[in-house]
Amino acid sequence: MIDKKTLLASLLGASVVLPLPALAQDSASDSDPVTLRMAYDADPVSLDIHEQLSGGILQLSHLTHDPLVRWTKDVKFEPRLAADWERIDDKTMRFTLRDGVKFHTGNDFTAKDVVWTINRLKRSADFKAIFDPIASATAIDEHTVEIKTHKPYPLVLNLATYIFPMDSEYYSGETEDGDPKDEIVKNGDSFASRHSSGTGPYEVVSRQQGVKVEFERFDDYWDKDSPGNVDRLVLTPIGENATRVSALLSGDVDFIAPVPPNDLDRVRADKNVELTTMSGTRIILMQLNQKRVEAFEDPRVRKAFNYAVNQQAIADRLMKGFATPAAQLSPKGYDGYNDSLEPRYDVEKAKELMKEAGYEDGFSVSMMAPNNRYVNDAKIAQAVATMLSRINVDVDLKTLPKAQYWGEFDDRAADIMMIGWHADTEDSANLFQYLTECPDPETGAGQYNAANYCNPELDEKVAQANVETDRAKRAEMLQAVEKALYDDAAFMPLHWQDLAWAAKKNVKLEPVVNVMNFPYLGDLVVEQ
């Protein structure tokens, strides 16, 4: 049996790689290259950036490709391969593309690559739902693309953050085995899963799944204004939290992600490394099933439950500061974020509301939560149950592994259920559509609304916001929805999970990390 120390050494020092002849290139330089040794909890499952919609694949996408636009730290848009854009009408957005951009193969980047990429996204099993609003993409000339939607749609720029143009010439045709080079094979073997040609700051030069991926800086990268000075990246997956942290503290790697909450103090205490944290965008909440518990139909009871839970204590003690207490679904930076809403914790107020509603003596409820899906999920559920006991609510809590939990969640098997949600579009409407809209199996609305909460008037406001292309007006509409849900105590918001990265002192991480957890490592500076 190999002990952990030997295993770590083999992972970090592995020299056996699977070369990709089409991608490999001479890395000789006049000076010693700047190398960043990274350890993530997992490596990308594929080089095909359309094979899977996941954090790992999106992180890879920002290394090897560039999006049309990308998010800033304050969740705004900044130009990348699209130098400019304008709305032509309610259904049409025109993008002006950068000139002089090269793919890793040396092919020129043009509008045809954008059109080709969008069409491929629309047939990807993981991405097609997100791109369903797009009716067509048309190349007007070599550097102009028009994207039309089926109906007025305000989130075209949000979708553009997922459009990482691929090298259409490189992926056209067939392999020697007669397979289409543009084939998308889920969890399988394909040309695109083994080869990569993007416009991004780094090329993949070697890859051994589960062991190591090596990247080198693309000499002809278009962004000459980027401050990034890292010539070579070595990504080693280390799944075990403690081992990953130890690799950083021992100097075996330069940068790790994520940093688990239980190791935050350990990392902070090391004078040679620096911890970077920020509030994330995944909301953790409890849903109160109004079809199972008559008392939950009364907004006074729902408010009492909200007043009974000390979110700050959960964030401080259980999450060790690794969470931001929430009073709404939308995190700061989303159009629907309403800065007038504050978490409410007042046990005496909760007792008054229970008495007013006729439940002074309380009642019994069942609660379910996963025990390995969200950070400290089982402990959080236990804390909520304990806090509810102060208003005479007896909670029968059951926690399950996520593989079993989701079946129970779909069956609405408990009176109170935990859910966490990150909006794929980084937009408030996505949160409402899945978590608070009246459940409708035909349309998919309220698919994860285990509360069976239903307010048709609010649903109509969300629908109106989804065809309002004036972003300022739309923000006002979505903020009004958040206020109404808060006043109605439609759910029990707990917190947004924080994000954490750690690196050696000379690795300047803070400027390149963001709440989406897609570090822009092409802009990373390592001080020599």
TrEMBL record:
Signal peptide from the UniProt entry: 1-24
Where are the bilayer-spanning segments?
Answer: none
What SUPFAM superfamilies does the database record attribute to this sequence?
Periplasmic binding protein-like II
Tell me yes or no: is Transport among this UniProt entry's keywords. Answer: yes
Q: Does the keyword S-adenosyl-L-methionine apply?
A: no
Keyword terms: Signal, Transport
InterPro entries assigned:
Peptide/Ni-bd, SBP_5, SBP_5_CS, SBP_5_dom
Q: Show where the Solute-binding protein family domain sits.
A: 76-438
- Which GO cellular component terms are attached? ATP-binding cassette (ABC) transporter complex; outer membrane-bounded periplasmic space
Which terms under GO biological process does the entry name? peptide transport
Q: Which GO terms describe its molecular function?
A: peptide transmembrane transporter activity
Task: Name it.
Answer: ABC transporter substrate-binding protein
Originating organism: Chromohalobacter moromii
What taxonomic lineage is listed for the species of origin? Bacteria, Pseudomonadati, Pseudomonadota, Gammaproteobacteria, Oceanospirillales
